[in-house]
Amino acid sequence: MDINSFSKLTYGVYIISSEDGEKKNAFVATAVFQVTAIPEKIAVAASKDNYTTALIQKKKAFGISVLKQHYAPITIGNFGFRSGRDFNKFEKCKYLVGKITGIPIVLEDTLSWFECILEQEIDLGTHVLFIGKVADCATVSEEDIPLTYQYYHEIKRGITPENAPSHIEKK
Ligand SMILES: Cc1cc2nc3c(=O)[nH]c(=O)nc-3n(C[C@H](O)[C@H](O)[C@H](O)COP(=O)(O)O)c2cc1C
Fold this sequence. Notes:
Elements (H helix, E strand, L loop, with lengths): L13 E6 L4 E6 L2 E5 L4 E7 L3 H9 L1 E7 L5 H8 L14 E3 L6 E3 L3 E14 L3 E13 L9 H7 L16
């Protein structure tokens, strides 16, 4: 297997959020894609190790924020490299509360967002594939373009932790 083949797959970079009534939390994800149009459904692959994964399973709802290309590195540092188990990721973060489900949706460096009701969950071994029906969505800004994983990785020299499906193990 030529492992480099995987680096040709294209992705965006998103923040996936939820809450359990007590705590709000979110993580950075690349494995996010629209799967149907009528009705609109979006799939997200979430590591079983992510704290947010358990919150989504409990709340049965999640938010998706589409990140902009000129993001502040602290946004990805905060949501993508630390676990919310022992730290409040929402303390200094701009967010809104979804009108349908009450979940928090991150607004930092966000171009548009989706509020999703969890419809299906598929066990993938290390990850869970969440399929959510879009209950609400909005565009926040037209002033930038969406961040792609290629730009994050090749131009910004950003790395991905092990929980990311796009992580490539150094041999
Ligand atoms: C660029 C990038 C992409 C990522 N993609 C995913 C992903 O698609 N799925 C996933 O489960 N984790 C992904 N991660 C890892 C999680 O964001 C990370 O493990 C996070 O700290 C989990 O937070 P939590 O434990 O507070 O939920 C990614 C991280 C980065 C920086």
